[in-house]
Amino acid sequence: MIAEHKQQMIQIMHQQGLSIREISRTQEVSRKVVRRVIEEGVRTQRKNHREGETVDLEQIRRLFQQTKGNAVRILEVLQEHGQKIPYSTLTRLVREARLRNHKKRAGAYHFEPGEEMQHDTSPHRLSIGEKTVTAQCAALVNAYSRKAFVQYYPRFTRFEAKCFLSAAITFMDGTCSRCGIDNTHVVLASGSGADALIAPEMEAFARIYGFEFFAHAVGDPNRKAPVERLFHYVENNFLAGRTFSSWRDLNQQAQTWCVEVANAKEKRHLGMSPQAAWLIEKSFLKPLPTIPVPVYKAFTRVVDNSAFVHLDTNRYSVPERLLGKKVDVHKYLDRVRVYHGGRKVADHPRLIDQTHSRITHPGHHPPLFRKPGDTQCDQELKLADFHPDLDAYICELKKRVRGRGVSQFRRLLEFKRSYPADAFLAAVMQAHRYCLYDLNRLECMILERVAGDFFQLDREDVSCD
């Protein structure tokens, strides 16, 4: 009787395509024994096949859909219904039913310097302050040098895409001839793969920097493996053990990580760091435009009754003199600027990842209801606490002037500084007693008291009639 381990070796060698003569010589057994062991193996496979045939392929297809392709779960469901089959038999039935596609050989892509850059996005869970959010990680990689640039955004629309690509291209100090993307609607207008139609807005943006977008075939992420691999590196290296206080802090740390870690570390397949490879690639990149191209989105808004303009559910203040007028609002990545008649009237930091909030510039909206302590101008402060009768006169005078009464208090301060204190206070006391708050009359009363002492005036010269 031949040993069991030799039988297994004979079966394996037979499956590998070796001839009976070679198996016999290698295992040192006769050809007759080799043939008998092979025939026994065939009978065992047929028996297993018959055991597997007790399971209907339609049932396998139905369970495959219900369990989302989990073969272990399919086996458990079959066992619950009293159908016990080996796991290898189940996987064979799955293959026979063609429920899974056969794996295809992965190819290799070779890129010349300045030939291609690759862009993609991926959602990452991270904490900003005490809040856990889902942030969109945007990445750009030069395919030859593998130099990378990463930034995060709360959402990723065409506006954010242009802002990111502009910052990434500036970081790379040049562009490659083409930019590979997946079949995202952010860049594409319709179609996919070779039939993809680039959105005119994004096509015009790419033309400014001298490159073209192209989309890889659906289901072929390996076409842009450098940028796909970068996301795994970011999640397990950059995000691990780091905390962020704001979106600005997050993106600053991401850019620092790109410079000091991702682009400085030597890559085995390159034999150098991405930064060193980029120095080789630099002369092949297309130069940046001579004049930087600002990326913003323009809107027309009507200033509401509260002197605010609305943008993305948030409100930004403008001077109240523009109430009800049309203004131009320019939304940048981190700023919101408001223009009226070609002149900038407001400049605010943009509210990111916030809704139904507002920003008010201190000089735009004076208080609607002023308290007595809040309306004192500089002239009034200089007159205060000089004499109780003067304070009482000022209190009544404020009730009869518009606004803060700057011009009235300035003139009253001139009276105090120009005329003797006794004459000034006596005239103020008399004017307050008779409710005379016309400053022309007050000055005449002061002049009556100083006539003859400082000025040679007749009483007719100081008469207010």
What tags apply to this protein structure?
alpha+beta; four-stranded antiparallel β-sheet; 16 helices; 14 strands
End-to-end separation in angstroms reads 145 Å
Widest sheet, order of strands = 3-2-1-4-7
Number of helices: 16
Question: Strand portion, in percent?
Answer: 15-25%
CATH superfamily of the largest domain: Ribonuclease H-like superfamily/Ribonuclease H
User: Which structural class matches the secondary elements?
Assistant: alpha+beta
Under the CATH scheme, which architecture of the largest domain would be assigned? 2-Layer Sandwich
**Biggest β-sheet description:** 5 strands, mixed
Topology pattern, helix = H, strand = E:
HHHHHHEEEHEEEHEHHHEEEEEEEHHHHH
Number of domains: 4
CATH structural class of the largest domain: Alpha Beta
pLDDT average, as an integer? 86
CATH topology assignment of the largest domain: Nucleotidyltransferase, domain 5
Radius of gyration: 42 Å
Q: Uncertain segments of ≥5 residues (pLDDT<50)?
A: none
Choose one word for the global shape: elongated
Total E-strand runs: 14
Classify the helix fraction into a percent range: 40-55%
